[in-house]
């Protein structure tokens, strides 16, 4: 049903179009209708939410896709969802349009179901200046506010800052940046200007299994000393082939996952960037990067199995410490997917290699270690859980505070690209 006097925008998936001041009353009516239509009315009259979830899209297709993803979210995250569509065109009319609906999903069976409320708001023209006030009017009081910004960050950072100021946590997804390097640097700058912002990235969740596998190498006592001697890291990431079909929010070369992993390893190993401009090479066109490190700060190494002289700095070994990121053309994998991590380490004249290699499918990787005098078979690990956005969102909605490790890594990426 569409009871609006301006039926120019039709969003059938968003539910019933209402005036903004009618949102609460119309939602109450939908709750009563939902209870009457159930085969049993147990627990159907209880309106509950554990958080406010604000999703900000810059086009209708992205908003529709995000609305579909909500179907897969767990029932533990029953939320008041505000789906915000921003039309930032300079010639767009000043307008605010609102739709409401109840989203329903089963808990145990189709008989036992939960509902959550979804309010879709389209804002255009001069009304965007008041977007924070518009969003606040749709929120449930006294509940945390999670903001998920879809696709590229806005050119006008003021819009983003207005929404950040009313949010407890802010989620982005750098895997969908059209200008990934520029956008990830903007994210670091925005975080520095908003010290109270708790920023996180779904791409960081996609990198987490790789970080865990790297850490597991050195959980074995026999391999632990080699963490202090790592002197070379090679990371490969997928770039799209010329025949690969991409959607309008995909870049054929997106090195963000590789950059995040490289920055995390750099901080965990206590490496310091060389100040010599000749010690780095950034080829943005191909997605190839190279850095030489000048020294290793032993005090910053996470695991210190070897005795060091009071945690002092040590100069880089002969040949230097280096990180290399390079592309690998693949047709079946999404751009930016990690393909391989290869680390070499030298301790007391012994060299060891640690490798994580993607196999034929995106769901599994092969881990292997080559150490003098030790032979261990390769291990196949399933990492399929990193692919679904709904799973990544589920994990992010479990976090109440700040992700300090991600924020530190984000600033390191900024330094690597500077």
From TrEMBL:
Residues 198-410 form the Glucose-6-phosphate dehydrogenase assembly protein OpcA C-terminal domain. Residues 72-186 form the Glucose-6-phosphate dehydrogenase assembly protein OpcA N-terminal domain. Transmembrane segments: none annotated. PANTHER family: OXPP CYCLE PROTEIN OPCA-RELATED. It comes from Dictyobacter halimunensis. This is Glucose-6-phosphate dehydrogenase. InterPro entries: G6PDH_assembly_OpcA, OpcA_G6PD_C, OpcA_G6PD_N.
């Amino acid at each position: 049903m569409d009871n609006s006097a301006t039926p120019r925008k039709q969003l059938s998936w968003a539910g019933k179009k209402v005036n903004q001041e009618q949102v609460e009353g119309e939602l109450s009516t939908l709750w009563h209708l939902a209870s009457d239509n159930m085969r049993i009315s147990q627990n159907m009259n209880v309106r509950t939410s554990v958080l406010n979830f604000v999703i900000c899209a810059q086009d209708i297709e992205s908003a529709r896709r995000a609305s579909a993803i909500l179907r897969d979210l767990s029932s533990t995250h029953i939320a008041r969802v505000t789906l915000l569509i921003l039309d930032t065109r300079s010639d767009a009319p000043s307008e605010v349009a609102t739709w409401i609906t109840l989203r329903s999903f089963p808990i145990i069976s189709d008989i036992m179901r939960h509902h959550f409320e979804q309010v879709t708001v389209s804002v255009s023209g001069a009304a965007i200046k008041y977007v924070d006030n518009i969003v606040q009017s749709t929120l449930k009081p006294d509940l945390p506010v999670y903001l998920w910004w879809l696709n590229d960050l806005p050119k006008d950072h003021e819009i983003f800052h207005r929404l950040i100021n009313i949010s407890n946590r802010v989620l982005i997804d750098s895997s969908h940046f059209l200008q990934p390097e520029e956008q990830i640097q903007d994210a670091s700058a925005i975080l520095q200007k908003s010290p109270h912002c708790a920023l996180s990235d779904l791409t960081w969740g996609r990198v987490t299994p790789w970080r865990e596998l790297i850490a597991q190498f050195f959980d074995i006592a026999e391999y632990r000393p080699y963490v202090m001697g790592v002197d070379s890291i090679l990371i490969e990431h997928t770039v799209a082939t010329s025949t690969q079909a991409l959607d309008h929010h995909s870049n054929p070369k997106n090195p963000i996952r590789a950059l995040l992993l490289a920055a995390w390893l750099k901080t965990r190993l206590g490496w310091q960037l060389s100040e010599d401009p000749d010690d780095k090479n950034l080829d943005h066109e191909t997605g190839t990067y190279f850095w030489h490190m000048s020294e290793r700060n032993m005090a910053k190494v996470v695991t210190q199995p070897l005795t060091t002289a009071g945690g002092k700095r040590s100069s880089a070994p002969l040949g230097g410490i280096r990180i290399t990121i390079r592309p690998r053309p693949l047709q079946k994998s999404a751009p930016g997917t990690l393909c391989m991590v290869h680390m070499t380490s030298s301790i007391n004249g012994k060299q060891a290699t640690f490798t994580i290699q993607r196999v034929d499918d995106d769901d599994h990787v092969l881990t292997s270690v080559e150490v003098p005098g030790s032979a261990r078979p390769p291990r196949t690990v399933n990492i399929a859980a990193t692919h679904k956005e709904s799973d990544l969102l589920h994990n992010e909605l479990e976090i109440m505070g700040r992700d300090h490790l991600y924020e530190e890594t984000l600033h390191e990426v900024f330094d690597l690209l500077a």
